[in-house]
């Protein structure tokens, strides 16, 4: 039952524009580990222990993100979230990574940042690197 609720919530978020979903894979939108971001250094990175879905985000790191967004009205960020799940279930890992990313996005919104300036990518366990992390990139 909870799987269906999570799917419904994700669909609603995509339809309302709260999560930017990209169905089409192009050279600039590669789902597998986003190689086009590998060359770019993350503005901020957060790590998680095990499968924790919530954590207190470092205040200095949050302020770095807000400062970057406040520099120009056209500045945007992309939150790329990864998670590891028990039994290597990719759907569970994606749900965890989505919850983490939305938690961070909500913290930014509570600081006055428009939701349209924060793009969320929940990658689940599709990474060769640390699977329990969030990376925030400048766009």
Topology at a glance:
Layout: H1 2-16, H2 35-38, E1 44-47, H3 59-71, E2 77-82, H4 90-109, E3 118-124, E4 133-138
Parallel strand pairs: 2-3
Antiparallel strand pairs: 1-4, 2-4
Quick rundown:
With 139 residues, this protein is an alpha+beta fold.
Number of helices: 4
Radius of gyration, in Å, reads 14 Å
The CATH architecture category equals: 2-Layer Sandwich
Largest sheet: 4 strands, mixed
**From the helix content, strand content and strand pairing, which structural class follows?**
alpha+beta
> Helix coverage percent of residues?
25-40%
Q: In whole angstroms, how far apart are the ends?
A: 37 Å
CATH top level assignment: Alpha Beta
The number of distinct structural domains comes to: 1
Q: Which regions contain 5 or more consecutive residues with pLDDT less than 50?
A: 14-33
Report the β-strand fraction as a percent range.
15-25%
Number of strands: 4
Helix-strand pattern: HHEHEHEE
